[in-house]
């Protein structure tokens, strides 16, 4: 395979990987997407998730889990976001479903707008969560393996 063909192949891979990933995303949109995903995994809407933040001078640490009442450092997911909104560290499991979506956001350098005061750890009905998503692309990404 020529270097041009290899380069095109790699470019096509990344174009596909980041096709539906936004350049900017609010934290509340991310958490609403997570609540929707948690409902899909459980097979029913969730009523509450665990959500914690630690805001430091240079970074914010965001912890969340699909189970309610989980202490911050025990949450399945943790994001470290710098003051510009760039995710600089990510704690997830396998890169499928929501974990893949988080990885894609980080790898695409999506700016996370930290609207802490808008995030609601309680969940609306499943249909209401779908309406709060800015596009259908997050839902499509979450349901891909």
Gist of the model:
The chain has about 140 residues and is α+β, with helices and mostly antiparallel strands. The protein has helices spanning about 5-15, 25-40, 100-105, 125-130, 135-140, and strands at about 25, 50-55, 60-65, 75-80, 85-90, 110-115.
Describe the structure.
The chain is of the alpha+beta class. The protein has one domain (3-142). Helices cover 37% and strands 21% of the residues. It contains five helices and six strands; from the N terminus they run H-E-H-E-E-E-E-H-E-H-H. The chain has helices spanning 3-17, 27-42, 98-107, 126-132, 137-142, and strands at residues 24-26, 50-55, 59-65, 77-82, 87-91, 111-113. The strands form two sheets. Strands 2-3-4-5 form a four-stranded antiparallel sheet, with helices on one face. Strands 1-6 form a two-stranded parallel ribbon. A hairpin with a 3-residue loop joins strand 2 and strand 3 (59-65). Helix 2 (27-42) packs antiparallel against helix 4 (126-132). The radius of gyration is 16 Å and the shape is globular. The two termini are 28 Å apart. The model has no long low-confidence stretch (mean pLDDT 80).
User: Which overall shape is indicated by the principal axes computed on the Cα atoms?
Assistant: globular
Low-confidence stretches: none
Sheet with most strands: 4 strands, antiparallel
- How many β-strand runs? 6
By secondary-structure content and strand pairing, the structural class works out as alpha+beta
Portion in beta strands: 15-25%
Mean pLDDT: 80
The H/E string reads HEHEEEEHEHH
> What's the total helix number?
5
In angstroms, what is the radius of gyration? Answer: 16 Å
What is the straight-line distance between the termini? Answer: 28 Å
